[in-house]
Amino acid sequence: MRNCSLIVAALCLLTACGSKTTKTLDYLKSDDVYVAVDETFRPITDELIDLFGKKHPEAAMYPTYMSEDSVVRMLCADSVRMIIATRRLSDNEQAIVRTHNLKVRHDIIATDAFALITHKSNPDSLITLDEIKGIISGKITRWEQLSHGSKRGELKIVFDHSGSSTVRFMKDSLNGGKDLSGNIYAQGGNLAVISMVKDNPDIIGVVGTDWLKEAGSPALSSFRDLAVNVMCVSRESGVYANFVRPYQYYIATADYPLLRSVYAITTDPRTRSMTKNFFFFLKGQDGQKVICNGSQLLPYMPVQVRDVSIKKE
Description:
- Helices cover 35% and strands 20% of the residues.
- By secondary structure, the chain is of the alpha/beta class.
């Protein structure tokens, strides 16, 4: 009887070990991709996910679009193991990730620019970086304070979310880390900002440049035929001012000043998973080609910039 009990115990142990091994293998081969994405990059991410899904029909894609601070919190809580954002995780955030026995990998996949947009009837299209700093610090609150302004009245600036990557960039890079002040408003999303600008000539809207293209269209070759005006921004003031719009060319030359890097960040420890495949797809030739040809972002893969002279007949 005792021998029988020992045999049963041994069989149970082997069964348990077999179940654990099967579960581990299933985990390593998981086809589910849960990725949290800064809402600024929804247009191009939708295109990237579409192409990746066609190449990997077995992959089950579950993107979540939200403000950047929410995206980072999801990664730190181990709710997702991949995000797309405009900054690296801080040392403190990486320490939180390590409490889940995970490591962080950051890779730059593109350079993004955000656009300043105004109502179609607004004649003012030129603004300098110093003037933008004046607006978000509360020093400039009226249109007539702009050096190239002809419009008069109260000037308001509208962002997408209070916790968005755009607000964080303005705060950290242009306002010395201080909270934004003045006539500052949040509208809830990039499309909401565009809609508000269409209806209000007193507003400057701040949006991800890629949101300006029509759904399903390739990268814009011109901003002239849009339902809003896209302002020209100069890094310098005075005689050295060079006003440009956020085309890929001026992102590549860094003449357009409102730029930030775009990161793919993963904590997935698996060597064979669709999450890892998607991470490397974004960095690879196929993903970089989509970013270059299908968006206003500049791909991280090296590109050749040439000055082209057109001979007049």
